[in-house]
Specification:
Radius of gyration: 22 Å
Mean pLDDT: 80
Number of helices: 5
Number of strands: 0
Oligomer: single chain
Number of domains: 1
Length: 123
């Protein structure tokens, strides 16, 4: 459905507590951006449901990106701490540079994966 197209039909249904728990578990595992999007994808069948793994993958990638950000912040803290103590040495820079290489490669791979998954969602 094109963006901005209003959804004007509302469908409601009842579940048992057990069914509601199962629905909540399935939604949480799906990585769908909202429960409504999850239910719509499941109800409308294979053409929609195939997008669920892309949501799950994007959620994983967002988590990985957050971890990389934490690593970068830790490196910045190490540099700032050394600078304040006036102990910013070549060894400190070498340590930071050694960490930045793998982080850069991880970021490139992650961005390639994200681009691929976004392409799947737009199909």
């Amino acid at each position: 459905m094109p963006r901005g197209t209003p959804r004007t039909v509302q469908i409601r249904f009842n579940l048992t507590e057990r069914e509601a728990k199962k629905l909540a578990d399935n939604y949480a595992e799906s990585g769908a951006p909202s429960r409504t999007a999850f239910l719509r994808a499941v109800a409308l069948g294979p053409g929609w449901a195939t997008k669920l793994p892309a949501w799950r993958q994007l959620a994983y990638q967002r988590s990985e990106l957050r971890k990389i950000g934490v690593n970068i912040n830790q490196l910045a803290e190490q540099i700032n701490r050394s600078a304040k103590k006036d102990t910013l040495t070549d060894a400190t820079w070498a340590s930071v540079a050694g960490e930045l290489g793998p982080l850069g490669r991880s970021l490139r791979l992650l961005f390639d994966d994200i681009k691929s998954e976004l392409g799947k969602l737009s199909k």
